[in-house]
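Reviewer 2 asked us to include a model.

Predict the structure of this chain.
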Amino acid sequence: MADKKKNVFGRIGDALNKKDEEAAKAEEAKKLAESQAKAEAAREARKVETLKKEAEAAKAEAAKVKAEAEKAKAEADKVRADQAAEKAKELLEKREAEAAAQKKFMEEAAAKAKAAAEAKAAVIKHVWTNEDTYSSLAFKHYGSIKKPYWWLIYEHNKAIIGDNPNSIKTGTEIEIPPLPDELKNADK
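Predicted model (structure tokens):
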């Protein structure tokens, strides 16, 4: 019976020892799990810290890129403004040149109109008589009987007289034009 008792007590002792061993193993497993959890938490904390640093670095890089983009935009805007100013300057110079050319044209036209008006005013009306000749009229008005002088009178009135200088009729009104510069300076 002692064996039985020992067995029962032994079994109880074994069970208690086993329980203590299991409790110790459980405690050890718990400590190991806690240690592993702490290590995992530390690794995760380091990962989070690394990610935070990378995020801050990316944010700083993004800010740097944004600043560079704004600087490039400002430079591009300045270049466009300079180009626009240059185009405006070129356009203004072109307009000024056009205005100067137009002014010159108008002055020349006014001078021609004035000269034409003076020439028309200088034209002398004459009614052809039986005693008239082109030479006599040229001598009277120009001081020379040479052909260029009397021919000037005929050519000026050719539309009235016709193709033959001798076909002029008495009573025809003709004009004595002013002497052109090239004949004023010629030998009479």
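Residues 2-122 form the longest helix (121 residues). The mean pLDDT is 87. We have added this to the supplementary material.
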